[in-house]
Design goal:
The chain has helices spanning 41-51, 66-78, 120-124, 127-130, 144-157, 187-194, 201-212, 252-267, 270-284, 297-308, and strands spanning 4-8, 12-18, 33-39, 56-62, 81-87, 95-100, 106-108, 133-138, 161-163, 182-183, 218-222, 228-232, 235-239. With 309 residues, the protein is α/β, with parallel strands linked by helices. The longest helix has 16 residues, at 252-267. Bound molecules: alpha-D-ribofuranose. Alpha-D-ribofuranose (RIB) is lined by residues 12, 14, 39-41, 44, 96, 108, 110, 141, 250-251, 253-254, 290. Alpha-D-ribofuranose binds at residues 12, 14, 39-41, 44, 96, 108, 110, 141, 250-251, 253-254, 290.
Length: 309
């Protein structure tokens, strides 16, 4: 049995509008479709890992509105341990209005709401359960002090940590995340973290190495349709992209991280975990929605069989 994964992070309600084009200032425009779904980078990553069969615990905060009930029910339905999903009085749950264009590209606004209440002291309430986990996964939709605290907690107790620095945060202090085991930015997040232009694999490697010079051990750069790059002290490996026809790219980065967490904790094989993560993320963009687009283990194995011919 693989070790338990903890996600210390966000949850949102995704309000997804499919548009023919974005409206201009002052313009009212009809859009062809709308979908309401569970989202938030933390919850998405937790759900992806759970759908693949991992034992997942979620540490997050919800508001005291109807969205909260739905979010908790969703975690329970997927089999996620939701004992540390706590309601915050007089606060809204996190929400994310999302616009998806015909190309599958998306634009996202986030209102963090109760996610802002996930402070270090609140995380400490889950400390005994966190100590039982094999990997702690984080993103940046909760307070930065919480991220620094969890990375220090992981280092102190010998628990590997993974930080997905999304959405990009100009205030993130790199000197306080050097204890993280895996840093997994996309190209624009890596640019903001380093101040270096990232446009291809060589520039991504150079930027990743500048972070490693500051103490970060392993950087995995997600490159969208160009695949991903694993940069370690003595190696740099390309993870090949999987070609699919994109319908909706929302949550693809989260699908990558959640599935990476699943395969890495299950197999302890970094190369295999990255290959499977690239596949799982590619499969997710062939369907609409965020969590709704994440395959079950059975469906994903069928997708992989087709790829392997
Ligand atoms: O990464 C996609 C996610 O970003 C969406 O589910 C939305 O809620 C925002 O958190």
């Amino acid at each position: 049995m693989a070790g338990k994964i903890a996600v210390v992070g966000s949850n949102m309600v995704d309000l997804i509008t499919y548009v023919n084009r974005m409206p201009g200032p002052g313009e009212t425009l009809e859009a062809p479709d709308f979908s309401l779904g569970c989202g938030g980078k933390g919850a998405n990553q937790a759900v992806a890992a759970a759908r693949l069969g991992s034992d997942v615990m979620m540490v997050t905060r919800v508001g005291d509105d109807i969205f909260a009930d739905n979010t908790i029910r969703n975690f329970e339905e997927v089999g996620i341990d939701a004992r540390h999903v706590v309601r915050v009085p007089d606060t809204s749950s996190g929400v994310a209005p999302i616009f998806v264009e015909k190309s599958g590209e998306n634009s996202i606004l986030i209102v963090k709401g109760a996610n802002n209440a996930l402070t270090p002291a609140e995380v400490d309430k889950a400390a005994e359960d966190l100590k039982q986990c094999s990997l702690i996964v984080m993103q940046l939709e909760v307070p930065l002090e919480t991220i620094y605290h969890v990375i220090a907690f992981g280092a102190e107790h010998g628990i590997p940590t993974l930080l997905n620095p999304a959405p990009a945060q100009p205030d993130l202090d790199v000197s306080r995340i050097t204890g993280v085991t895996y840093l997994v930015p996309n190209e624009s997040e890596l640019e903001l973290l380093t101040g270096m232009k990232v446009s291809d694999a060589p520039s991504a490697e150079a930027a990743a190495r500048s972070l490693m010079a500051k103490g970060i051990k392993t950087v995995i750069v997600t490159l969208g349709s160009k695949g991903a790059l694993l940069v370690t002290e003595d190696d740099c490996k390309r993870i090949e992209p999987v070609a699919v026809q994109p319908m909706d790219t929302t949550g693809a980065g989260d699908a990558f991280i959640g599935s990476f967490a699943h395969y890495f904790t299950k197999e302890s094989d970094l190369d295999l975990a990255l290959k499977m993560a690239a596949r799982y993320a590619a499969d997710s963009i062939t369907r609409p929605g965020t969590q709704k687009s994440y395959a079950s283990i059975e469906a994903f194995e069928a997708f992989c069989s087709k790829l392997d011919g």
